[in-house]
C-alpha cells in the first residue's frame, strides 16, 4: 500500500559538505528559520477565532526545503509529501495555497480529519531569473468541527472514517492569490461552527503566505545556492549530533517492549498492543549505524477510531514524531532542551511495519479520530524499550493527550461547543521529579477561566493539581489536573481520553501514576463516573463535573525518597498524609498545612515494607488496571529484565 505513495524527494540539495559552509551563516539561517516559524504561529494565534486554535494553541507550523525535508526543530509538523505528489512543484505559482485533511491521502502526516493543513510554496529566482519553488511553509491545526456524526468531529464509536467528517484530498485552495470560494463554501457548509472555521482557515493561509514572503527575502539576500548549502549543513549537523550524543548511549543489541491502548470506543475494553523491537546496529553494519524500529507484534486494526496511518513515506512522520523521546539520553536536561528534531534524525532511524490491517497500518476506511491513543502510546513504548537498553536511565511514562468539553445551547439559546486539551503529569526522571500538568502538544495550554466563563454557560469552580496522582518513586511522577466546572444550563459532556484503566507506568521500582477519571454531579444525588470515551453525556444545570487527568509514573524506589521531600510534597498539596504513608512509608503527624515527620515511625514502616517485598520484581509497574484487562496478570513478560551478568574482571 504505502510503496505506491513513494516520492522522488528527500535527498541532499547540494554536494557541499557541512564543513565547507560558513558556520556563522549557518547559525544566522537557522535562527532566521526559527524566527519565521514563530512569526507564522504568532500570526495564527492572534488572528484565528476558535478556542482550540486561538486559546488552546493546538496548531503547528513548519518550514521545509524543496526536497520536503523539515528544517526547523522547535515543533513537529505535518508533511509536504502529499502536496508535491499531487501538484508537481513546477506547476505551482506565487500566491498558491494548498489544503488537505484526508488522513489516507496525507502520507501519514495528518492523523484525523479535524487537523486541517495548509501549505504555501516559497519562490526565488533561479539562474535564468525565473521564479521556482525553493521551500515550503506549512501549518496545521485542530479545528472545532469539520462535520461528521457528533459535534467536534470525533465520534468515539465511529467504525468508518465516513462518520468522522468531511474528507478533503490535496487541493489548490488559493490559486495565484485568489481563494477558491466554492471549496471554502463546501467546507464551512459541513461545519457546525462555520464562522470559526472560515476565520481560522483565513488566518492560517494568510500567516503561511506571510512566512513565504519572509523566506523569499532570505533567498534574495544570500542567493539560492548559498541558502540551500546552509540547509544541508543544518540537517547534517543534526545527524552528526544525534549520532554522537544520543545513539552512542544505546548499547548495540536488540530490545523488545510493548504497551497498550485500553479501549477503542466500540468493543469492550481490552489490550490493544503497540509493540516495538528496537535494534541498535553497530558502526560497521553494512546498512549503517542506526536504530531499527520494528512494529511487528502490534495489534490488529481496531473497529473503533484509534488507528493511525503510519506506514506511508517510509514512516517519515513517525520518525520525527518519536525522535524527541531520544533526547532524554542527552548529557543534561539543559543539553536536552538544546536539541532540535528536524529531518536530520531521519537517516538514523529505520522503520519496519507489519502487513496492512494493524493499528499502524489500517485499511481504508478504518476510523482514526482518536489515533492519539496509539501514536502517543508509541512515545511511551519507545521510552520503555530504550529504558531496558540503558538500565532505566529514561523517564517513566508521561501523560497522554485528551479532549474534554461541553456543548449545547448557551444562555441566549445559541449553540456552542467548548473543548480543551487538558495536560497531565510527566514521568519521574533519573535526575528529578516529573513536571506537573504539562501538555504533550508543544505550547498548548488549558483554556483561560476568564475566557470560558464569559463565553460558555458554566462556572469554573476550581482548577488545581490532582493530589496523589503522580506515581510514587525516588523521583515522583508529575501531577495531573483537577478541574471542576458547574453547569449553568443543561448540556452535554464529551471526552476523548484513555489511561482511565491503564495508568502511566513506573520504572526501576517506581510506581504507576493515577489514571484519568470524570465524575458528574459530584456530591449530588446523581453522582456518576463517566466513561473516558463519551460523545454526549447529559449534564443538568447545577451539576458539577470533576475532571482528574493522569499523573506521570514514578522513577526509582519510593522507599528511598528523602522523607524531607515527602514532607515538602504534603505541605505543597501534592501528596496527602495518607498517600505519604501508603506510597512512601513516611509517617506524619499534624495537619497537611503543617506536617511533622515521625522519624521513628517512618524508619519502622519502611523497614517492614522492605522485608515484605518479593525477592524479584518487574522492571516496569503498570498499576492495578493492567490486571483487569490481562486476565489477572500483574505484569507482561516483556516487563522483566534479566540481571546483568557479572564480569570476569
Automatic annotation (TrEMBL):
InterPro entries: Hydantoinase_B, Oxoprolinase-like. Residues 639-649 have a biased composition (Acidic residues). Residues 22-558 form the Hydantoinase B/oxoprolinase domain. Residues 606-649 are annotated as: Disordered. This is Hydantoinase B/oxoprolinase family protein.
Amino acid at each position: 500500500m504505502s510503496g505506491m505513495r513513494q516520492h522522488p524527494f528527500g535527498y541532499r540539495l547540494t554536494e557541499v559538505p557541512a564543513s565547507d559552509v560558513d558556520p556563522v551563516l549557518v547559525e544566522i539561517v537557522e535562527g532566521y528559520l526559527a524566527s519565521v516559524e514563530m512569526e507564522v504561529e504568532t500570526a495564527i494565534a492572534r488572528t484565528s477565532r476558535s478556542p482550540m486554535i486561538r486559546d488552546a494553541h493546538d496548531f503547528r507550523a513548519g518550514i521545509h526545503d524543496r526536497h520536503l525535508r523539515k528544517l526547523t526543530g522547535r515543533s513537529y509538523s505535518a508533511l509536504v509529501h502529499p502536496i508535491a505528489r499531487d501538484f508537481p512543484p513546477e506547476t505551482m505559482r506565487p500566491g498558491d495555497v494548498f489544503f488537505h485533511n484526508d488522513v489516507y491521502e496525507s502520507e501519514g502526516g495528518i492523523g484525523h480529519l479535524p487537523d486541517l493543513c495548509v501549505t504555501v510554496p516559497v519562490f526565488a529566482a533561479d539562474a535564468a531569473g525565473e521564479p521556482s519553488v525553493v521551500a515550503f511553509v506549512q501549518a496545521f491545526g485542530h479545528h472545532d468541527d469539520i462535520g461528521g456524526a457528533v459535534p467536534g468531529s470525533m465520534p468515539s464509536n465511529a467504525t468508518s472514517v465516513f462518520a468522522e467528517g468531511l474528507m478533503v484530498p490535496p487541493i489548490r485552495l488559493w490559486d495565484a492569490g485568489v481563494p477558491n470560494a466554492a471549496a471554502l463554501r463546501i467546507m464551512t457548509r459541513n461545519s457546525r461552527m462555520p464562522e470559526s472555521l472560515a476565520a481560522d482557515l483565513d488566518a492560517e493561509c494568510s500567516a503561511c503566505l506571510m512566512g513565504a514572503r519572509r523566506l523569499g527575502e532570505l533567498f534574495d539576500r544570500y542567493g539560492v545556492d548559498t541558502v540551500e548549502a546552509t540547509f544541508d549543513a543544518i540537517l547534517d549537523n543534526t545527524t552528526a549530533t544525534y549520532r554522537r550524543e544520543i545513539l552512542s548511549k544505546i548499547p548495540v543489541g536488540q530490545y523488545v517492549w510493548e504497551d497498550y491502548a485500553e479501549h477503542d470506543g466500540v468493543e469492550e475494553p481490552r489490550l490493544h498492543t503497540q509493540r516495538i523491537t528496537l535494534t541498535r546496529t553497530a558502526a560497521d553494519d553494512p546498512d549503517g549505524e542506526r536504530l531499527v524500529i520494528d512494529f511487528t507484534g502490534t495489534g490488529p486494526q481496531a473497529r473503533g477510531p484509534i488507528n493511525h496511518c503510519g506506514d506511508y513515506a517510509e514512516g517519515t512522520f513517525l520518525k520525527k514524531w518519536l525522535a524527541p523521546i531520544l533526547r532524554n539520553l542527552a548529557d543534561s536536561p539543559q543539553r536536552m532542551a538544546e536539541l532540535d528534531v528536524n529531518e536530520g534524525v531521519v537517516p538514523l532511524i529505520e522503520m519496519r511495519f507489519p502487513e496492512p490491517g494493524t493499528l499502524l497500518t489500517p485499511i481504508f476506511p478504518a476510523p482514526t479520530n482518536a489515533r492519539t491513543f496509539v501514536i502517543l502510546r508509541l512515545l511511551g513504548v519507545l521510552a520503555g524499550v530504550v529504558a531496558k537498553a540503558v538500565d532505566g536511565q529514561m523517564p517513566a511514562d508521561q501523560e497522554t493527550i485528551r479532549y474534554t468539553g461541553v456543548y449545547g445551547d448557551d444562555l441566549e439559546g445559541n449553540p456552542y461547543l467548548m473543548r480543551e486539551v487538558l495536560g497531565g503529569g510527566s514521568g519521574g526522571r533519573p535526575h528529578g521529579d516529573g513536571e506537573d500538568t504539562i501538555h504533550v502538544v508543544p505550547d498548548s495550554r488549558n483554556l483561560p477561566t476568564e475566557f470560558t466563563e464569559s463565553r460558555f454557560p458554566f462556572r469554573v469552580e476550581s482548577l488545581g493539581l490532582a493530589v496523589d496522582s503522580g506515581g510514587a518513586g525516588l523521583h515522583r511522577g508529575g501531577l495531573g489536573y483537577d478541574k471542576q466546572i458547574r453547569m449553568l444550563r443543561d448540556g452535554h459532556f464529551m471526552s476523548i481520553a484513555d489511561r482511565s484503566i491503564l495508568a502511566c507506568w513506573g520504572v526501576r521500582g517506581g510506581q504507576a501514576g493515577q489514571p484519568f477519571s470524570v465524575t458528574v454531579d459530584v456530591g449530588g444525588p446523581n453522582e456518576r463516573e463517566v466513561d473516558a470515551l463519551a460523545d454526549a453525556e447529559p449534564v443538568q444545570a447545577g451539576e458539577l463535573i470533576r475532571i482528574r487527568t493522569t499523573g506521570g509514573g514514578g522513577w526509582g524506589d519510593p522507599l528511598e525518597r528523602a522523607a524531607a521531600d515527602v514532607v515538602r510534597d504534603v505541605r505543597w498539596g501534592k501528596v496527602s498524609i495518607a498517600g505519604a504513608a501508603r506510597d512512601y512509608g513516611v509517617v506524619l503527624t499534624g495537619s497537611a498545612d503543617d506536617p511533622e515527620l515521625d522519624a521513628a515511625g517512618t524508619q519502622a514502616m519502611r523497614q517492614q515494607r522492605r522485608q515484605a517485598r518479593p525477592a524479584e520484581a518487574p522492571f516496569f509497574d503498570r498499576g492495578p488496571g493492567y490486571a483487569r484487562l490481562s486476565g489477572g496478570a500483574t505484569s507482561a513478560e516483556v516487563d522483566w529484565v534479566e540481571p546483568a551478568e557479572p564480569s570476569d574482571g
